[in-house]
Specification:
The chain has 408 residues and is mainly alpha-helical. It contains 14 helices and no strands.
Length: 408
């Protein structure tokens, strides 16, 4: 039974949590059209983000790491079973704690339980992780950056009690998000991609892999400066931010050369190749956005139009890059299959939903920036496009439950 926690349960639950997070996000969109009384927008937002990252993102990525990188006999270790169960329970409880109470004592306790469990799990993965190639190094550093990002969650409680929601509070949140996004998720997902390609016996340049890793790694810590430029206008911060973004751009060039050489050799189905192209384009937009964000004018306008540019960037990462990447990895490790129409429709509905919501968010922002007439029914259109996302995720969730009904 416990073997199924890693082998099946974790991915079914991860996608189900993604669906719940998406539904909460849809309620947030609905609230802009028809304000819902007695429901806190801030509480819904915290529920949406925590379940998306800690439920969907973290569970799916760490589960994939266990299957791809950890020997099968070690996957059954009781530390993995106990920590994963604890993490899953804590995330489900967060659905209620954040929705009902927000960032209060119950939610803080659950985050602490999650954090401690993830520490134990992380150290065990580092112990069991074998190999010294670039793929393994990306996973190691992904976990290192996760541990670094988590320090902000402990410090945040002190900041709230001592200083309240000042600039220090927001910069602490951005510290957490930066090293979670650009550290844990980026490094871990590319480590998984490289390993699944290697497992297919496809030869590709170790030199380009190493250069991609080095430039990405050197840029990661100083790139945090890009997240705090809004609160510090010192020229040196802009210089450091631009240098970090440029290093990330160089790593992107090596990634492009790497994937260009192996793309035709990959014996993947059409949908897998579409997902790979899609996430690479999203990642390219992410890097370009970070380069642009190192200029004072862009920082000023992005903060002024936060509801469009900042939210657009966050969804660019979480939906267009991270989630599409996870779907690709799940396809390669056979935890998601496209042997029926349900999954195909679900994936394409999700992709179209992502494209349309991003066009709306950034498009409306540029209309305001250009002082042109904005889209008058923006919230209504965004709700419809977000519904397409939820529909796609719902189909994928349904497929997972049907395929695992004997297990569940």
């Amino acid at each position: 039974m416990f073997k199924k926690i890693i082998d099946s349960y974790i991915f079914v639950i991860a996608i189900f949590l993604f669906l719940l997070s998406a539904i909460v996000g849809l309620l947030i969109r609905l609230n802009f059209i028809f304000p819902i009384e007695n429901i806190s927008y801030k509480n819904l937002l915290q529920t949406h983000s925590h379940v998306a990252f800690l439920g969907w993102g973290y569970l799916a990525v760490i589960g994939s790491i266990l299957i791809v990188f950890i020997p099968k006999n070690k996957q059954l270790h009781k530390i993995y079973r106990i920590t994963l169960l604890t993490i899953i329970i804590s995330v489900f409880l967060m659905l209620f704690s954040f929705s009902l109470f927000g960032y209060k004592i119950f939610s803080i306790v659950l985050l602490s339980v999650f954090g401690i469990s993830s520490y134990i799990l992380s150290f065990r993965v580092l112990k069991d992780l074998k190999g010294t190639n670039t793929s393994s190094d990306l996973i190691r550093y992904g976990i290192y950056y996760y541990l670094l990002s988590s320090l902000a969650t402990w410090f945040l409680v002190f900041v709230i009690i001592k200083f309240g929601k000042t600039a220090l509070y927001y910069n602490t949140v951005y510290f957490y998000l930066h090293f979670l996004y650009n550290g844990f998720f980026v490094f871990s997902l590319f480590g998984l991609l490289f390993r699944v390609i290697e497992n297919k016996k496809v030869m590709f340049s170790e030199k380009y892999k190493k250069l991609f890793f080095i430039y990405l790694n050197v840029a990661c810590i100083p790139a945090y400066v890009l997240s705090i430029l809004w609160s510090n206008g010192s020229p040196i911060f802009y210089v450091v931010g631009f240098a970090a973004a440029f290093l990330q751009f160089l790593s992107l060039i090596f990634l492009f050369k790497l994937l260009q050489k192996v793309f035709s050799k990959l014996k993947w189905n059409f949908i897998s190749k579409v997902l790979l192209i899609f996430l690479f384009i999203a990642y390219t937009f992410k890097i370009v956005s970070q380069i642009l964000s190192s200029f004072p004018y862009i920082v000023e306008k992005s903060m002024a139009l936060k509801n469009f540019f900042i939210i657009g960037y966050l969804h660019l990462f979480t939906l267009a890059f991270m989630s599409v990447f996870i779907f690709l990895i799940l396809l390669q490790i056979k935890k998601l299959t496209i042997d029926n129409l349900t999954v195909k429709i679900g994936l394409f509905a999700f992709l179209f939903g992502v494209i349309l919501t991003e066009l709306l968010l950034f498009g409306q922002g540029f209309l305001f920036l250009s002082k042109l007439k904005p889209v008058l029914i923006f919230n209504e259109l965004l709700f419809i496009c977000s519904s397409l996302l939820v529909f796609g995720i719902a189909l994928l969730t349904l497929d997972q439950f049907i395929k695992n009904q004997k297990v569940l």
